[in-house]
Design a protein that fits this description.
By secondary structure, this protein is an alpha+beta fold.
């Protein structure tokens, strides 16, 4: 693909095929993300369709990424040779054309130097333009081929038969320097553009570089064999030595060490790994060595999922790109019309120099028009922005959420696992019953909590296991979302849950128990009730430490003019104490998952741009409803699947960074689009000769080609500034 018009052409060709649901083509990284029905169309059929309109698929998903890099490197080297050789040949043509036009053999010397530039080093422009023309399409290659081809053929005619014009009173002008220098400048511009574009995918290369090429597999007899990572299977036992990168996700079964997980979690402190602990691909082992069992390999590893998410996000389109695509789609035909119009006007009003001026203006309009700058303006900024986010532990699923984040004016923070550490611990188990009866009640409590997935249930389970309580077998367990659980044992129903759950079921709570609950609440502890159908048995107090980063993050967000709310299913007293400690004034407590989503809708109806930050399954409905959804990476898989952004670490301070990144990226996109539009809006009329009646200025095609080349390079260079922020 040579310009934005090509990307539109590829996209429309794919979308026209039966069985393709959605297709997005990214000109900046020459990739297409396609959603399709395999029963209706195959990858080979897609390939055939694209080959039919002059394009091709070189690498498909799942194929060797190194092969893709080899192809790109080979193309870059070929482009460099073309650019250098065409520049060497074009230079003497430019010198002769400017200073030695009156030499006897000047035209033939320029013909000799220009012919290889067009016919060999610049032949790709003509080949691609011809393929496009066969299918009734046009792109930047069309503009270059028509402008340089006409200038060259006209010059050859005037060199071979100058008498035709001399007999009619005209000087036989030649435009070899326009043809050769335009081709040379455009090839040089493309070379600089390709070099800059490879830097925009730096983040992906860095992530891919975290994957080791080989691993050491341990056989059942203890023998160690070094094998390629592609041969690792689930269940293989692998050895990791000091300093090695961990090849796949797995669980440690022997040895111990500390592992640097900063590239995935963002946490700088190395994590201790002992038997039973999880390890992740791409993380770096430090001093010790250990053996682990492979659990996830290939594309299933956490690192592979991160790479895929970043690649897909970099290939996605921001809403502003839709307008740019429409403009790019009609850009080339419009420019062709303007060039013909300028030619006709000059022929009509040009006087003695009508033909030369008409010819120069037509060629210059074709050369100066640059759909590339328009096509690169948005995707290069998006690629660098999303790549920068990945380096900082901010995984962004699509360009739309990156663009939308800078508009956020309300942020909703879930309490547990977002503001707090999400590691609840039981501090008190207060029983109404006597000590003699407590053991049996604890056995039932342990049995119920062992079957619940709620983080508070897990805290109770851990506490009772420490006391070496043996569980019984409970029957008919039922979970009531956002309220609690009901279970049956020996024909007695047991309830575990919130105060509202107890009230709803008519459970009697003594004054002594109420006083005990007040005491726990004033200590900012979460209270869980344990009862039968009618009588309270126990009050369980659970605490969850507030993250160190929470207070700073809330302050930063408020300083940015963003309203911060805390949402929680917890009781009002505990919620208010936690909110006060982190500086949040707006609190919504005792909220069910559906209440959170409804609250998001209420704010949206008031015209607010709402971001929801959560980590649990109970947050997924609100995350799906929010304008921008942010999941904390150490939360549930469901929350991360629903959310458009994932903060890999548990640090809330990364959220203000994500919003800042969005603002900087959108600012860069606007700058790029402004310069791309202004360049074409000003450049094309000047090329057409609009200044000639005022000050006699007519733009030289050579200068126009240099300006066109630099416009694309400047857009990419501006996007790359994001990497240094």
């Amino acid at each position: 693909m040579s310009c934005a018009s090509c990307a539109i052409s590829v996209e429309s060709t794919l979308l026209a095929q039966k069985g393709i649901v959605h297709a997005t083509v990214n000109f900046a990284n020459a990739s297409a993300l396609v959603e399709f029905s395999p029963s209706q169309i195959s990858l080979q059929q897609m390939k055939n369709a694209l080959q039919g309109v002059g394009y091709d698929i070189l690498i498909e998903e799942g194929e060797d990424e190194e092969e893709s890099e080899k192809i790109k490197l080979s193309e870059y080297k070929e482009l460099r040779i073309k650019a250098i050789c065409s520049s060497i040949l074009a230079f003497p043509v430019m010198v002769i054309g400017m200073f030695f036009m009156n030499l006897t053999w000047a035209n033939w010397i320029m013909f000799a130097f220009t012919s290889p530039v067009l016919c060999w080093f610049g032949r790709s422009f003509f080949i691609h333009a011809w393929k496009q023309a066969l299918h009734g399409k046009a792109n930047m290659d069309t503009l270059v081929a028509i402008s340089t081809g006409i200038a060259y053929l006209f010059s050859v005619w005037n060199t071979v038969d100058p008498s035709f014009w001399l007999s009619r009173g005209f000087h036989p002008h030649v435009y070899y320097e326009a043809s050769s220098v335009v081709i040379a400048f455009i090839l040089l511009g493309k070379l600089l553009e390709e070099r800059a574009k490879t830097t925009t995918s730096f983040a992906i290369k860095k992530l891919i570089g975290l994957q080791p090429k080989t691993v050491i597999r341990i056989a059942h007899d203890g023998a160690e064999t070094e094998i390629p990572i592609t041969l690792v299977m689930v269940g293989d036992r692998l050895l990791v030595k000091p300093g090695d990168k961990i090849p796949v996700d797995g669980v440690v079964f022997g040895g111990a060490s500390y592992v640097d997980e900063s590239m995935i979690s963002g946490e700088p402190v190395a994590v201790e790994k002992t038997v039973g602990k999880e390890v992740f691909a791409g993380t770096i082992n430090q001093r010790g060595s250990f053996q682990f069992t492979a659990v996830k390999v290939g594309g299933d590893t956490l690192l592979a999922q991160i790479i895929r998410m970043v690649q897909e996000a970099q290939g996605s389109k921001a809403p502003v790109q839709k307008l740019v695509d429409k403009i790019a789609g009609i850009f080339v035909p419009v420019v062709l019309c303007i060039s013909l119009l300028s030619f006709g006007i000059w022929l009509f009003i040009g006087g003695e120099q009508a033909l030369p001026h008409a010819f120069i203006s037509m060629v210059t309009v074709l050369v100066i028009a640059c759909p590339c700058a328009l096509g690169l303006a948005t995707p290069t900024a998006i690629m660098v922005g999303i790549g920068k986010g990945a380096e900082k532990g901010i995984l962004i699923k699509d360009a739309q959420s990156l663009e939308q984040a800078q508009k956020i004016n309300v942020i909703l923070l879930d309490k547990t696992g977002t503001i707090t550490e999400g590691k609840p611990e039981v501090t008190d188990l207060w029983f109404v019953a006597s000590i003699a009866e407590q053991k049996a009640l604890k056995q039932i409590l342990l049995a119920i909590e062992s079957q619940s997935e709620h983080p508070l249930a897990e805290a109770v389970y851990r506490k009772l296991k420490e006391e070496e309580i043996a569980p019984v077998v409970v029957m008919k367990m039922e979970s009531i979302t956002g309220k609690g659980v009901r279970a049956s044992y020996n024909n007695v129903n047991y309830l575990i849950g919130s105060a509202a759950f107890m009230t709803e079921n008519g459970v009697f709570i003594t004054e002594e128990a109420k006083n005990q609950v007040k005491k726990f609440l004033l200590e900012a502890k979460t209270v869980v009730y344990y009862s039968t159908d009618s009588l309270l048995l126990s009050v369980i107090a659970i605490t969850d430490k507030i993250k160190q980063s929470s207070k700073d993050a809330v302050r930063h967000l408020q300083q940015e003019g963003i309203a911060v709310y805390m949402l929680t299913g917890d009781n009002p007293t505990t919620a208010q104490i936690v909110a006060k400690l982190v500086g949040i004034n707006e609190i919504r407590s005792e909220m069910l998952p559906s209440h959170k989503a409804e609250f998001v809708r209420e704010l949206q109806k008031k015209g607010k741009v709402v971001a929801m930050v959560g980590d649990g399954i109970n947050d997924s409905e609100a995350l799906a409803q929010a304008d921008v959804s942010i999941a904390m990476g150490k939360g549930s898989d469901i929350a991360m699947d629903v959310a458009k952004m994932t903060i890999i670490s548990s640090d809330l301070n990364v959220i203000p960074e994500a919003i800042k990144l969005s603002r900087l990226t959108v600012k860069t996109i606007r700058q790029n689009l402004f310069w791309a539009f202004i360049y074409n809006i000003i450049g094309i009329p000047i090329a057409a000769g609009i200044l000639y009646p005022i000050n006699g200025f007519l733009l030289n095609p050579m200068i126009a080609s240099a300006a066109m080349a630099l416009s694309s390079v400047s857009v990419v260079a501006n996007s790359l500034r994001l990497r240094r922020v």
